[in-house]
Write a structure and sequence with these properties.
Blueprint lengths: L1 H31 L3 H4 L1 H8 L13 H12 L6 H10 L3 H25 L2 E2 L5 E2 L2 H9 L2 H29 L11 E4 L2 E4 H18 L3 H29 L4 H12 L2 H6 L5 H13 L6 H5 L7 H30 L10 H12 L2 H32 L7 H18 L4 H25 L1 H16 L23
Antiparallel strand pairs: 1-2, 3-4
Helix pairs in contact: 1-6, 1-19, 3-15, 4-10, 4-15, 4-17, 5-13, 6-11, 6-13, 6-15, 6-20, 7-8, 8-9, 8-17, 8-18, 8-19, 9-17, 9-18, 10-15, 10-16, 10-17, 15-16, 16-17
């Protein structure tokens, strides 16, 4: 009964509420910025390699902030989320993922630019911020910031961790030993392998989180690009082997995407809704998570980090999600609800790589899940700091809370798939419904910051932000004077 209630809330929350809000907001931001996500794509790539303003190496660079947000975005959703969308919603889900990615990249620019403008500095010289801070400072609604932080902690400390852990253990279902031994747990039989994965993952995440946030930055900066490139390379090999199927595959995608009779006949389970839901879960544009990482970057102008964060959305959806979708669809392996998730991807890759295929997907899932879990808890720490009067809680409290989050990870490996997805969808939806309207109300600030950036660039300068340049009172900001 509880699962039925969660699924019902999930369905109503995404259609019609969130889909309409996201689409309208994404288009609104795109037109207001003159499609900055496309128009300044080259500039975004150039800024990615720009060194940190602080040569001491003590602060987070623009690239490091991108890697932290990408670590959370790039995860099991790129494999399992896409697979689930295709198996249950249909191939047309890929098209709607692409459309929403391009549109909502403008939302990513807005939220990250606002986070930079209203960021703060702690006693050690590190920057922090996010939606809670620009909602409080610019909208003068600290009560709403508190609610947002509660949703964020529920999403990244519980919802996403449950789902990420479930997705990881599901990749072991392809092996014969998965179902050979079961344990009675919480009134049902659970694979001993799933329990073992849960215990191991819990211990590893706790170990890394107890080592401090700086270790998270160094770890993700190295691992995220490597695992992403390896996954894309393997996907390209599978696609190349099945290249003769590519034309018919795209015909299938577009035909299914515009099968409005099918969509209108069952909207909640259609390719449109699944494409948007799983796309949002994967790239998180507009959710309000990435701004927490964006605020930590030391840049000379807020628009710089806003532009860089649009790339994270593209990397996640247009590169990694598309790699999964094309790899699976080009092979023509059977797709249905029974293989939704990791099994569908493993079946597809095994047509080319044999027994190595499922093994590679399991390894990718391990790496994706691990970096996602670490990135998730980075966001949780920021929310805890806000609730603790803008100060990071004591190390003892953080250690206890991180251990609690690590234990939550274990439960994710032993719960049903529907429950894991529903909890993650609902908590993430709560964040989005607060952050998107806030960004819309504060949109003029981000747009003026973008115009100031472009004006300085045309004058041949390295843009440097001053609050007075866009009509803000410098005394109301913590960093930009």
């Amino acid at each position: 009964m509880l699962l039925d209630i969660l699924n019902k809330i999930d369905d109503i929350l995404y259609f019609p509420v969130l889909i309409i809000i996201m689409a309208i907001a994404g288009l609104y931001f795109s037109f207001r910025t003159k499609f900055v996500q496309l128009r300044l794509f080259g500039e975004s790539c150039r800024l990615l390699m720009e060194p940190s303003e602080d040569k001491s190496g003590k602060t987070v660079s623009s690239f490091q902030a991108l890697m932290i947000s990408t670590a959370s975005r790039v995860g099991t959703g790129n494999i399992v989320g896409v697979s689930t969308a295709i198996c249950i919603g249909g191939p047309g889900a890929c098209f709607w993922m692409w459309i929403m990615c391009i549109i909502t990249a403008a939302s990513a620019f807005m939220e990250s630019t606002l986070a930079q403008i209203f960021k703060r500095k702690d006693k050690d010289g590190n920057y922090f911020g996010g939606p809670a801070y620009y909602i409080e400072k610019a909208l003068h609604a600290p009560w709403l910031s508190v609610i947002f932080c509660i949703f964020l902690i529920a999403t990244y400390g519980i919802g996403f961790n449950l789902l990420c852990a479930y997705n990881l253990q599901s990749s072991f279902a392809a092996y014969p030993f998965y179902g050979s031994h079961t344990l009675s747990l919480f009134g049902s039989d659970v694979s001993a392998v799933a329990v073992g994965v849960g215990i191991a993952l819990t211990i590893l995440v706790a170990f890394f989180m107890l080592g401090g946030g700086k270790r998270v930055v160094r770890f993700t900066e190295i691992l995220v690009p490597i695992m992403g490139m390896a996954y894309v390379l393997i996907s390209l090999i599978v696609i190349f082997v099945n290249i003769k199927n590519i034309p018919s595959m795209f015909v299938t995608i577009f035909k299914d995407a515009f099968d409005f009779r099918s969509i209108l006949g069952g909207i909640a389970g259609s390719c449109l809704v699944y494409g948007i839901k799983r796309g949002l879960y994967s790239n998180e544009a507009g959710v309000g998570s990435a701004p927490n990482a964006s605020a930590s970057a030391n840049v000379s102008h807020p628009a710089k980090q806003g532009l860089v964060q649009t790339l994270s959305v593209y990397i996640d959806t247009l590169l990694l999600c598309t790699a999964t979708a094309l790899m699976c669809l080009s092979t023509g392996v059977e797709r249905n609800a029974d293989v939704a998730g990791a099994p569908y991807v493993q079946n597809a890759i095994s047509t080319v790589f044999g027994s190595f295929g499922p093994l590679f997907i399991t390894l990718a899932m391990v790496l994706f899940a691990f970096t996602t879990l670490l990135g998730n808890l980075f966001y949780v720490d920021n929310a805890l700091a806000y609730l603790n009067k803008k100060k990071m809680p004591s190390k003892r409290f953080l250690d206890i809370f991180h251990i609690f989050c690590a234990v939550i990870i274990f439960f994710g490996t032993v719960i049903p798939m529907d429950a894991a997805w529903a909890v993650a969808d609902i908590t993430m939806g709560g964040m989005t419904m607060i952050n998107i309207p806030a960004c819309a109300l504060l949109g003029s600030i981000a747009v003026h910051a973008l115009k100031d950036y472009e004006t300085q660039k045309k004058a041949g300068k390295n843009p440097v932000f001053r609050a007075s340049n866009i009509g803000l009172d410098a005394e109301q900001l913590d960093h930009w004077k």
